[in-house]
Amino acid sequence: MASLSLTTDLASWASHFQVKNNAVDNLLKILQKHGHTHLPSSARSLLKTPRHIPTMQKCGMEYLHYPLRQQLLNILKKYLAEEILDHDTINLSFSIDGLPLFKSSVKVM
């Protein structure tokens, strides 16, 4: 059970502080080298990042339907349950138009 707790804590920490994936990868390698072999070897595995997101062509553009409500509920259940128990309001801020999908990509959201 302790391993699940460490894995969950690391995922929450990486998400909360927006730690870059390469830094998380390096930390995971260090922890594995020091006996935590149960931990995943990559940030993508730790954070359960999807490897492929299906898109469709619409009006001459690539379109992504992102089920925002369900994704927010999943995130809240997964990472923030303890932190939001005493709150009845969560403030969200969005800026999506023209958001780069990846630092090295010319594709935008």
Automatic annotation (TrEMBL):
Q: What is this protein called?
A: Uncharacterized protein
Organism annotation: Culter alburnus
